[in-house]
Amino acid sequence: MTDEAAVNSVPHGEILMALVGAVHGGDASEMAAARRAVRDSMGDAAFVDACATIASFSAVVKIADGAGIPLEDFKEEATRDMRAELAINDFQS
């Protein structure tokens, strides 16, 4: 959900998207604040559910990558330089 209408269509959408952004951004202080916001506004059970959902989506991507599912054209183009720099294309799938 990247557009404001989609975020606002889900209860607590802004708080949840802040958690997703913090997790993927990797900044420890942002993650702590986002975790606290979810727990304070939605409770511990919802926090666990949100974390499980984020982890699940991450796992699905890793499984697809590991299985050698082809990269979409727009992702291939957007990551070309990074993949070359890291020699990722040299790995066998």
Describe the structure.
The chain is mainly alpha-helical and 93 residues long. It has one domain. It has five helices and no strands. It has helices at residues 4-8, 13-25, 28-42, 44-67, 73-86. The longest helix has 24 residues, at 44-67. The two termini are 30 Å apart.
Please give a quick description of this structure:
This protein is mostly helical and 93 residues long. The chain is built from five helices and no strands. The chain has one domain (4-90).
Features:
93 residues; mainly alpha; 5 helices; elongated
Q: Which consecutive residue ranges, at least 5 long each, have pLDDT under 50?
A: none
SSE class: mainly alpha
Helical stretch count? 5
Q: Could you spell the SSE succession in H and E letters?
A: HHHHH
Biggest pleated sheet: none
Give the overall shape: elongated
Residues in β-strands, percent: under 5%
Rounded average pLDDT: 88
Helix amount: over 70%
Beta strand count = 0
Count of the domains: 1
Distance between the termini: 30 Å
C-alpha Rg (nearest Å): 16 Å
Topology, please?
Blueprint (H helix, E strand, L loop, with lengths): L3 H5 L4 H13 L2 H15 L1 H24 L5 H14 L7
